[in-house]
Q: What sequence folds into this?
């Protein structure tokens, strides 16, 4: 089969929403080429070391590459991407170069080439993310291995927003907890919660591609008996009493359901939010406070914010 590689030159700030949008459009995998990867400390990388060619990377911003079948009305999709650019700019995102280019590519070339960007990565002392095709042995008895196939849906576990969410879950999840994962993507946060001992996890996403991906990754990690996956619009219609709600999505989406998060949490329950750019932090805080949450913690990584709010009645 012939594929079309759609390359978008944009800003790091816009990486998450654009990547998610591409998957919603039916992309059969995405790759991020970020110059920051060239200077990451090797101590963070596990398994086989691999070389990255600086010539593949832009001088500024990042490249997002998405792969569509050659008969998938790609030019219509490019028009849709340009319209989405306008939407992002209207809500305050800076998109950088905003350049889009197309290239035909053979399936065998794509299927193998993109995997060089994903190797085992230790996120915390207890959580290591391992691509499904890599072999990796835990270094300690406490180390939990999360297997993922990043080609299915957005959420490889190495983006700052995901790392912040994982660290918060590691700190707060305890045995017998009930956790709601709103906007589950590839299912990584649901899997982490299960590996950390949560009893029941309910994963929700509006995107059917994300729902399928979460189910596949949950089964791959052997936690399907504790993770229930459902296509759903945020927490609409959900009537659960959870100990923790985690949501790694855009600030503009988080503020839409802070009231439902309050309703679905037990007293002293936690609302872990991530995916917040610095200039949207105050907006999210105001909505949390308006809905009677107490903001307990703030963490920041590479310009991205994570907030931990507590329900105190």
A:
């Amino acid at each position: 089969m012939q594929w079309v590689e759609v390359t978008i030159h944009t800003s790091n700030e816009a990486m998450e929403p654009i990547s998610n949008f591409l998957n919603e459009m039916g992309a059969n995998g995405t790759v991020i080429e970020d110059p920051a990867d060239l200077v990451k400390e090797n101590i963070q990388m596990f398994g086989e070391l691999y070389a990255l060619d600086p010539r593949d990377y832009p001088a500024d911003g990042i490249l997002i590459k998405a792969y569509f079948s050659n008969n998938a009305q790609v030019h219509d999709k490019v028009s849709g991407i340009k319209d989405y650019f306008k939407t992002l700019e209207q809500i305050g995102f800076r998109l950088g170069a905003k350049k889009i280019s197309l290239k035909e590519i053979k399936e065998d070339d794509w299927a193998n080439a993109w995997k060089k960007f994903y190797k085992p990565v230790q996120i915390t002392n207890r959580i290591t993310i391992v691509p499904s095709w890599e072999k990796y042995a835990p270094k300690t008895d406490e180390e939990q291995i999360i297997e993922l196939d990043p080609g299915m849906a957005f959420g490889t576990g190495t983006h700052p927003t995901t790392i912040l969410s994982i660290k918060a879950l590691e700190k707060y999840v305890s045995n017998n907890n009930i956790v709601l994962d709103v906007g589950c993507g590839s299912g990584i946060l649901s899997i982490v919660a299960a590996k950390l001992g949560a009893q029941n996890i309910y994963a929700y996403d509006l995107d059917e591609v994300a729902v399928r991906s979460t189910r596949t990754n949950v089964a791959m990690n052997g936690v399907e008996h504790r993770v229930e996956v459902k296509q759903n619009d945020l927490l609409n219609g959900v009537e659960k009493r959870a100990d923790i709600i985690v949501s790694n999505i855009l600030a503009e989406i988080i503020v839409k359901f802070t009231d439902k998060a309050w309703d679905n949490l037990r007293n002293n329950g936690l609302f872990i939010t991530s995916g917040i750019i610095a200039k949207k932090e105050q907006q999210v805080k105001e909505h949390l406070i308006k809905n009677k949450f107490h903001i307990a913690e703030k963490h920041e990584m590479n310009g991205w914010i994570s907030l931990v709010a507590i329900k105190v009645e």
Remarks:
- Confidence is low (pLDDT under 50) at residues 38-52.
